[in-house]
Specification:
This protein has 128 residues and is of the alpha/beta class. 43% of the residues lie in helices and 18% in strands.
Length: 128
């Protein structure tokens, strides 16, 4: 199994920790965290993660704005982004897909199946 590197972006430290622990435990992935959109952009450039889990509602720079900056940067525009958010109405999902976001996973999520959901969304199941 190829070890993946995931960047988790959420302004709530508790969500960062739960996500980090579940992805490290269930999938053995390396997890990096960021608490803001600005920090996420910097870490995406320096760490070059295989995927980004991005919260939508954050102070200062929301997830959609962060995503747009990531897509404008040639060093980060190929990194797949999955939203991890409480805002997942059907109209929201359509809007996210239109923007180029891979998918949205609803909060609260299941810690036991989160890595499997991410793998399925990104087509990583075939690599394991």
């Amino acid at each position: 199994m190829i070890q993946k590197k995931i960047l988790v972006v959420d302004n709530e430290e508790y969500i960062q920790e739960v996500t980090k622990i579940c992805l490290q435990t269930t999938a053995k992935w390396q997890v990096i965290t960021a608490s803001s959109g600005t920090e996420a952009i910097k870490k995406a450039v320096t760490e070059k993660p295989d995927a980004i889990l991005l919260d939508v509602m954050m102070p200062d720079m929301d997830g959609i704005t962060t995503f747009k900056y990531l897509k404008e940067n040639s060093m980060t525009n190929q990194i797949p982004v999955i939203l991890l958010t409480a805002k997942v109405q059907n109209t929201d999902r359509i809007h996210y897909i239109d923007l180029g976001i891979k998918a949205a996973i609803a909060k609260p999520f299941s810690p036991l199946t989160l890595a499997q959901e991410i793998s399925q969304i990104l087509g990583w199941n075939s690599e394991q």
